[in-house]
Amino acid sequence: MKFNTRTIHGGQHPEETTGAVMPPIFQTSTFAQEAPGKHQGHEYARVTNPTRTAFEDLLASLENADQCASFASGCAAMDAVIKMLRPGDHVVSSNDLYGGTYRLFTEVFQPLGINFTFVNMASVDETAAAITDNTKMLWIETPTNPLLNIVDIPAMVDLSKKHKLISAVDNTFASPYLQQPLELGIDMVVHSATKYLGGHSDLIHGAVCSSNEEIMEKIRFQVKTTGAVPGPMDCYLALRGAKTLAVRMERSCDNAKAIAHHLREHPKVGKVLYPGFEDHPGHNIAKQQMSGFGAMVSFSLKDDSVQKAHDMMSATKVFTLAESLGGVESLISHPSSMTHASIPREERIKAGLSDSLIRLSVGIEDESDLIADLDKALDSI
Ligand SMILES: *Cc1c(COP(=O)(O)O)cnc(C)c1O
After folding, report:
1. Rounded to whole angstroms, how far apart are CA atoms 376 and 381?
2. How close is the Cα of 265 to the center of ligand 1, in Å?
């Protein structure tokens, strides 16, 4: 089945007892057993729940993975992944990461003895140079957040194979609609399903997908043992949202393209970061490993001031000033004072994240309304 069909039918079947087309929200903590150990596939809802399984089967289908495990949030999913490691182990990651990922790595796991090196992963040489005898994992985000750099996934797969590392891609920004890292040889994919998969800014949800049985056994052990699991209602919402992933992404990507090109010509706009531009340094790699350029656009103002950026963001009416991304509604945010405030300023500046950088998550509204809204806000400053 093609991707668009799998978003609706992947891993899904009508419920057995009633024929319900959508899986019921199985709001239960436990499941009756006929005799000790004799049950219908579910024992206790921390371990598995049928509504959760329905979402997991769908996402596994979209990522071309044998298995998927879902979590209460993207952060809980990442937490489970890093807990596969042990003190003394080392991870090489990007210096342009989601702020919450950076905080989890440096403030939870680093004090427990797991070490991290943050490099410009768009450079394969810089990434290779950071690998030591203790390195166990490459943690990749691409496109990166919020600078929209592109990391060469096949090159990272080669490095992982050469040094026997586990490769993990946070695929939140691209979604499986645009990028399927497991198909390119990556070991595991992590999602904040809060974003494009859910798509409606109405839940917090995370997931890990892999076809490596040894890895998924460890992840399922984390699910069972630490219990950072999503409730059945959220699993239902994530499933319902994911069914429209393809049509939402198509429209959002079209809108983002139009906005990026429009902003580039605007006299008050400085640099526009968008991998769809032919002169974007990662454009050719993006063209090879993604089926589109995504719906995130970042830009700075010519007058590079925090105050002007704040004024501009406060003036939009269609774009909502808010953290997060990937919903049907367009959002505007200021990474350095919002999502990325937990990254020290000097680290941010070093990575190229200027104080005035503005990030757009482009939704599915009418293109002309979105452009008019940005123009009006830019005119006001
Ligand atoms: C939001 C986000 C996360 C964290 O996910 P939550 O669901 O908010 O816990 C991780 N990575 C990326 C790229 C994100 O955008």
Report:
1. 9
2. 31
Q: What is d(CA 366, CA 369) in angstroms, rounded to the nearest whole number? A: 5
CATH classification number, 245-379, choose in 3.30.300.130, 3.30.450.20, 3.40.50.300, 3.90.1150.10: 3.90.1150.10
Verify whether ligand 1 is closer than 6 Å to residue 120 (CB atom): no
Reported pTM? 0.96
Hey, what CATH class is 3-242 in? alpha beta
Q: Yes or no: say if 289 and 336 are a contact pair by the CB < 8 Å rule.
A: no
Q: Determine if ligand 1 sits within 6 Å of the CB of residue 194.
A: yes
Ligand 1 pocket test, candidate residues 195, 204, 234, 237, most atoms within 8 A of CB: 195
The closest alpha carbon to 144, from 153, 135, 136, 131, belongs to: 153
Decide if pLDDT at 353 tops 90.
no
d(CA 72, CA 248): 23
pLDDT at 338: 86
Across the beta sheet with 296-301, what order do the strands follow? 269-273, 296-301, 358-361, 331-333, 320-321
Please indicate whether residue 340 or residue 305 has the higher confidence score (pLDDT): 305
Q: Where are the domains of the chain?
A: 3-242, 245-379
Q: Is 101 near ligand 1, meaning CB less than 6 Å away? A: yes
Positive or negative, the CA dihedral 24, 29, 31, 37 is: positive
Ligand 1 pocket, residue 100 CB under 6 Å: yes
Ligand 1 centroid to residue 152 C-alpha, Å: 21
What whole-number distance in Å separates Cα of residue 317 and Cα of residue 173? 24
CB 344 within 8 A of CB 278: no
SS3 40: coil
Tell me the mean pLDDT in the region 154-170.
98
Q: Are 381 and 308 in contact (CB under 8 A)?
A: yes
With beta carbons less than 8 A apart as the criterion, state whether 333 and 313 touch: yes
More confident residue, 98 or 160: 160
Cα angle, residue 101 at apex, residues 341 and 242 outer, rounded to 5°: 110
Name the token pair of 196: 């494009």
